[in-house]
Structure formats: C-alpha cells, structure tokens
Amino acid sequence: KQEVTQIPAALSVPEGENLVLNCSFTDSAIYNLQWFRQDPGKGLTSLLLIQSSQREQTSGRLNASLDKSSGRSTLYIAASQPGDSATYLCALQTGANNLFFGTGTRLTVIP
Amino acid sequence: DAGITQSPRHKVTETGTPVTLRCHQTENHRYMYWYRQDPGHGLRLIHYSYGVKDTDKGEVSDGYSVSRSKTEDFLLTLESATSSQTSVYFCAIRQGSSGAEAFFGQGTRLTVV
Fold first, then answer.
1. How far apart are CA A39 and CA B104, in angstroms?
2. Which chain A residues have a beta carbon less than 8 Å from that of B41?
3. What share of chain B is helix, strand, coil (3-state, %, to 5)?
4. What's the whole-number mean pLDDT along residues B49-68?
5. For residue B102, with 0-12 CB atoms within 10 Å meaning exposed, 13-18 middle and 19 or more buried, which class applies?
6. Is A97 on the interface with B (CB under 8 A)?
7. Mean pLDDT across the stretch B15-42?
C-alpha cells in the first residue's frame, strides 16, 4: 500500500519568506501527484497536478516538483503571504480509483 | 467548487440511526468518490463510482453503502450510525480514471451521539 508522508506537520514563517513543503511516498508507480490547499472547516482546493511523466508544474507563486525515483515531491511557495496560511495536502493516484493522501502540513505565515 | 454540492453540510444524529449524505455534481464527470477525513489519518476512500449503478469499495467501506442512480448524484448511507463514524465526509469527482485532476466538495460534518 502506498504510504505518503508530509514533513513537517506544522510550519510558521514570516511574511515574504520563500518556503518548501515536502511530500514523500513509497511506491513510485503513480499516475499523478496533486497538491491541495485546505482552509479550516473548508473543502480541498486543487493547486497543482503533476502527471507521472512530468517533473514540475507552476502556477503563479507556486511550483511543484516530482522525482519518482526518490519518491519525493516538493511544493515551493515564493514570497509567502498571510493569505497562504492553510493546510497543504499532497495526494498520489496510484490506481484508477484512489488517491492516497498525506496528513498535511499546516502553514502559518506571520504578518 | 467545480460544480459539486454536498448536503447536508452539518448533521448530528443518534447512534443506530441510518443517515444518507448526498453529493451532486453538474459537470457530468464519470468518476465520483466518498472520502472521510479524520485527525491523524488524512483522507481515506470509503466507496467510489465509475458510472451509473457501477460502484466499488474503498479501504474503509465497512458500515457504509452507496448508490448512484443518476450521473449527477452519488449517495452515501451509514446503515446504522456509530460514534466511530463521526467525521468529515468529502465527495470528489474526476473526469477520467487515470491522470485526471480530482475536485472536492465542501464537506459534510457528521456527528454521531
């Protein structure tokens, strides 16, 4: 079974700092990897989707990378803002019908 | 919100009663999923559907059943609610089975007392 780990579980940074969130996984046979954002009491918002054949995807201040050989993905957030405070989840699709989720990194950006 | 509506958004129910949660989508996606989110466990798949009347079990399906009589609606039923089923339930949709982006609803917070 796919195991997905996100470290650290929580992170606090001052506004304006660049930061990296980490996601590691045990099974490299994946279809894709997706990063989500979850605000307290809310649903999941899709941020970036990286297909298995891709190495990275970018959207605005966000950049996600994928290294299947090492079982790692990173989400890079540039020039962090207080509005970026949320829990960030990575999820891997390893079969036709499931996403395996990490337990997330709770990010706090301090003004 | 990718055209996904979950209802109800909040529910409190008593142990032993049946409960049905509804997921409605407007995007005509083929694949629909029910997940539960619990502290320390992340999101775990309960059941999924790959078409009308086509459903299958996920990793935590015991005590749950599903039905999909129309493309747009996917129902999750707790046959006899227990306190261990207190959780936040999320519906998700995906257009294709592999490689496609998944979109999630806003969640239903269920409390079983």
1. 13
2. 103
3. 5, 60, 40
4. 94
5. buried
6. yes
7. 93
